[in-house]
Amino acid sequence: MRPVFYHRHAVRYLRRMPADRKAQVKAAVGGIAALEDPLSHANVKALGGEWSGCLRLRVGRYRAIFHLLMDEGDECLEVLQIGPRGDVY
Fold first, then answer.
1. pLDDT digits (tens, 9 = 90+) for 24-33
2. What strands, in cross-sheet order, belong to the sheet with 4-6?
3. Where do the domains of the chain lie?
4. What is the pTM of this model?
């Protein structure tokens, strides 16, 4: 399983979310981190344009934008943004 890091923007939004939704998003991100290939998950899609190189995870009406990083030889998952569909892009 890859370690998961949250950018300060994602942490700020997580603090304001209802507790049940926060747990749902964190569980979904943890599930993606455990996968060998995140794109094999049905709710993950590669993004283009401004977010080129990033992936999107759909969790109900929320979206989490993340990318994979190499950290001292190990791959980790960094969550950049979390929010409702209309605001996160």
1. 999 999 999 9
2. 4-6, 74-84, 62-71, 55-59, 44-46
3. 4-88
4. 0.89
